[in-house]
Amino acid sequence: MADSLRDVLLRRIALSGPLTVADYMAEALGHPHFGYYATRDPFGAAGDFVTAPEVSQMFGELLGLWCAVVWQAMGRPNPVHWVELGPGRGTLMADAMRASRKVREFAEAAHIHLVETSPVLRRVQADTLVKASPSHPPLWHADLSGIPDGPMILIANEFLDALPILQFERTAAGWCERLVTAGPRGDGLIFALSPPSRRPPPLLSPAVIDAPIGAIAEVSPAAVGVIDAIGRRLAGVGGAALIIDYGHPQSAPGDTLQAVRGHAYHDPLADPGQADLTAHVDFGAVTRAAIEAGAKPFGPIGQGLFLERLGLGARADALIAGATPAQAESVCAARHRLTAAGEMGTLFKAVSLQNPDLPPPPGFT
Fold first, then answer.
1. Does residue 25 form part of some domain?
2. Separation of alpha carbons 177 and 233, rounded Å
3. Could you say which DSSP state residue 3 is in?
4. Are residues 123 and 78 in the same domain?
5. Are residues 119 and 78 part of one domain?
């Protein structure tokens, strides 16, 4: 058996040729023995990065109440499938469930479903959520196809950014695909280019086709597939989805592939399986895919504006009212981190996808 994922990938390249960036990402994140998410809990100060639910309970609480209000607009279906994609430690859902108990009928109608492939994170989520709601345990699924039929409310926070992307470079001879191959000494990984094609890559936005020579373009067939499946379901049986992630509001060229390890940027090819790999979400592609699937998109808008419209300020004030000075300072710092332009407030965007018959969702008008 190979000693590392690098060994696995180098052998695969020797046998079958260079990998697409998407294949590399899929192996680095999801390989059953060496993949990043298959082998660790990466969240929090002791991990490699911190997500919004770990910053403050306010994030999950506001999203839980958002879901309850949307459920009311849906006509209060019972049951309703409450789905989270990539639930991390279960922190967001635990906070959302606690806040949603203020709308008792929703809490009773909601059947919790978690889409998670990591066995390590499933165990952490079970510990978190069984404690939060021992009488209403969640069900786990490998993908959306396992969610039963019926109306659905879906949350996805920092999920799409981890889905594999393809990268292309525009050269004087045409578009070349960016590939991952063995380095000159055969013991490391480097980027290379495929032979050029005069035809633009599939799924490439018209706004990017005429990018200048040397530009990098990214597409994510995996993300488009997920949004298509969500949109078709919402259009067919009803419901809404809330997607929050970092990225650009419209399709544009740019190399956004990045690796993070120990809360610092890392070479994406240096240690496959040992660092988180992500790319900025193309929200233009997200909204186009949703419309083509029959859903109605709202947004994207900045996470900071979205949370403030949902009442983040009032919730922060309520927490501060009963807090010690140190706790109050922590609440204020969390609010700043979630909403400030120099923090998560503008880089992160919120998008809602809905059945076209529903009224505009909270926070988007």
1. yes
2. 33
3. S
4. yes
5. yes
